[in-house]
Amino acid sequence: QTHFLSLSLQAKMSRLVQARRLEGIDKNIWVEFVKLAATYATVNLGQGFPDFPPLDFLKEAFVRALSGENHMLHQYTRAFGHPPLVKILAQFFGKLLGRDLDPMTNVMVTVGAYQALFCCFQAFVDEGDEVIIIEPFFDCYEPMVKMAGGTPVFVPLRPKAPKEGKLMSSADWQLDPAELASKFSERTKAIVLNSPNNPLGKVFSRGELELIADLCEKHDILCISDEVYEWLVYDGKEHIRIASLQGMWDRTVMIGSAGKTFSATGWKVGWTVGPNRLLQHLRTVHQNSVYHCATIAQEAVAQGFQREIELYGKPDSYLVQLPKMLQQKRDWLVQSLDAVGMKPIIPEGTYFLVADISEFKSDVPDVPDSDEPCDYRFAKWMVKNKGLAAIPLSSFYCGAHKNNYNHFIRFCFAKEEATLKAANDILQKWKREKTSP
Ligand code: PMP
């Protein structure tokens, strides 16, 4: 009897437990580096979140929603977005795009931009479809395309040498038009655009967006436009929405994040804006998976946007103040890195700055047969030995291209002055140790 039981148990266990679509996507850079930072970092410039508080107004809006008269805010709300939030988003983005948006059909609220991305890939990508991804890319695009049964096709931004004596800028990383065009085929279903780009901070120019838009039109392709850093643009640069270009509205889903807009990444409120012909399919995925996002968080974000609409373009607007504050933080980190010889690539936007570690690589013990890219080993060594957390750039590349871009790391500068100063102290001390061993 026992023998029989153990046999049948064995038979059951020998079946593959996990679905085939999970193959090869079990590792996640954030899970790994968040743990390393929690264990070793004294200064965490790794994952992209601010360590400063959101605006008081926004926190108070959340508290009002939580403890106010309207106890219905503790209950379910409309699946595709709390009515006050979709209404204000339609008004706000309608104004930016210069078109009338219907809150019920042109806007859908998601659990962060992350779920918006998931909805897009599930809704649009079939077995055998190809999705073009511009490298370096926010890492989840690749597993999300694969989970939907699609094939990611990668095209890298190519760095040009900066002018003599100048630091490189994220604008020096550009698409090769012929190379980009060569990636489009009859199997291509969509392209993912992320401007401003995580990790480089590149803000795509009108010319670059027109190049992408022309190819989308020519090949009848969708554009999944991840614009979570839309407000974080520096040096007077302009964020251009690809949906506003000729012919692009009908084929674009714009994705945004209250986390990045209002410095409250933990609230996990995101949204999609686009034509009903696309959003109706996102609604199908959403209603059959997550269903809706926390009501109170949506209510508070709606109030945040209400305030922004009233203050639009004025000095008191958070969306005017935030990029100013972040530009200064960027400049501090640029100076710190430049002073020690960890050459920064000046970002035009986002929370992030990529730096060249070539002059520091020799500090890290070599592991000859390691299959880990050397920027991975560098970032792990740095957090363990220097207490400073950053993310290896190769994690934003596909497997085949990782070793072409293995001498950079990404820092997040959306941090308090004291945090950036502590990072500066670590870098200075490191530099001193290098020069006087
Ligand atoms: N897209 C990009 C490019 C991001 O950097 C992030 C967050 N790091 C997201 C999407 C996800 O945003 P959210 O936190 O709103 O889910």
UniProtKB/TrEMBL annotation:
Report which gene this protein is encoded by. Kyat1
Superkingdom, natural source: Eukaryota
State how it assembles: Homodimer.
Task: Provide the catalytic activity annotation.
Answer: L-kynurenine + 2-oxoglutarate = kynurenate + L-glutamate + H2O; an S-substituted L-cysteine + H2O = a thiol + pyruvate + NH4(+); 3-phenylpyruvate + L-glutamine = 2-oxoglutaramate + L-phenylalanine
PANTHER family named among the record's database cross-references: FI04487P, KYNURENINE--OXOGLUTARATE TRANSAMINASE 1
The cellular location(s) given in this protein's UniProt record come to: Cytoplasm, Cytosol
- Recorded protein name is Kynurenine--oxoglutarate transaminase 1
Cellular compartments per GO CC: cytosol; mitochondrion
Q: For this UniProt entry, what is the primary localization, expressed as one broad class?
A: cytoplasm
- Residue ranges annotated as coiled coil are none
Pfam families according to UniProt = Aminotran_1_2
Family, according to the entry, reads as follows: Belongs to the class-I pyridoxal-phosphate-dependent aminotransferase family.
Query: What cofactor(s) does the depicted protein rely on?
Result: pyridoxal 5'-phosphate
Q: Does the keyword NADP apply?
A: no
| GO biological process per UniProt | kynurenine metabolic process
Report a single Gene Ontology molecular function: kynurenine-oxoglutarate transaminase activity
The chain positions of domain Aminotransferase class I/classII large read 43-423
Family annotation (InterPro entries):
Aminotransferase_I/II_large, Kynurenine-oxoglutarate_AT, PyrdxlP-dep_Trfase, PyrdxlP-dep_Trfase_major, PyrdxlP-dep_Trfase_small
Q: Known Gene3D superfamilies for this protein?
A: Aspartate Aminotransferase, domain 1 (3.90.1150.10), Type I PLP-dependent aspartate aminotransferase-like (Major domain) (3.40.640.10)
- EC no. given is 2.6.1.64, 2.6.1.7, 4.4.1.13
The protein's UniProt keywords, in alphabetical order, are: Aminotransferase, Cytoplasm, Lyase, Pyridoxal phosphate, Transferase
